[in-house]
Amino acid sequence: MVERAITNLTVRVGDTGTVNIPLIGIVDANAWRIMANYKQYYVRSFTIGGDAWVWLDSAPWHLHRAKITGIARGFSRDPQAPMLLPYVAPTTDWIRLQRRIPVTIVLVNPPPDGTLYMGADARTVIFPKGGTFR
Predict the structure, then answer these.
(1) pTM: predicted TM-score of the whole model, two decimal places
(2) What DSSP letter does each residue of the chain carry, written as one string?
(3) pLDDT tens digits along 73-85
(4) Does residue 81 fall inside a structural domain?
(5) Looking at residue 108, which CATH number applies to its domain?
(6) Does residue 37 form part of some domain?
(7) pLDDT of 134 strictly over 60
(8) Could you list the residue range(s) of the whole structural domain that residue 81 is in?
């Protein structure tokens, strides 16, 4: 079952559409995922299909079981460059921080009512190779 929700509907009678200017936001509940940015030295022990736990700020006090579905193989160092590769902003401008690599995570059993919020905050814990849970 494909579930979608319309959000940010700003169309009114008499409005006209313009190319490349969105009028309606549609959120696909089946496309929901978590993008977690991990330090470079952590991701070397991650694997696709690896186990994770997720705490959603929109549904606190419940840990969700999750799986790694992607680990970025490249990232942009320039926020102004065309977005062919993901850009992860450093957390401060005055000290050199280790780069973060985007890791894609999906819930194993998402809430049956589909109440997940795109753009909401989450916290993740990923177990290294060999560190599984049941």
Answers:
(1) 0.70
(2) ---EEEE-----TT----TT----EEEEGGG--EEEEEEHHHHTT--TT-EEEEEETTS-S-EEEEEEEEE-S--BS-TTS-TTS-B---S-SSSPPPPEEEEEEEESS--TT----TT--EEEEEPPTT----
(3) 877 777 776 667 7
(4) yes
(5) 2.40.30.170
(6) yes
(7) no
(8) 31-126
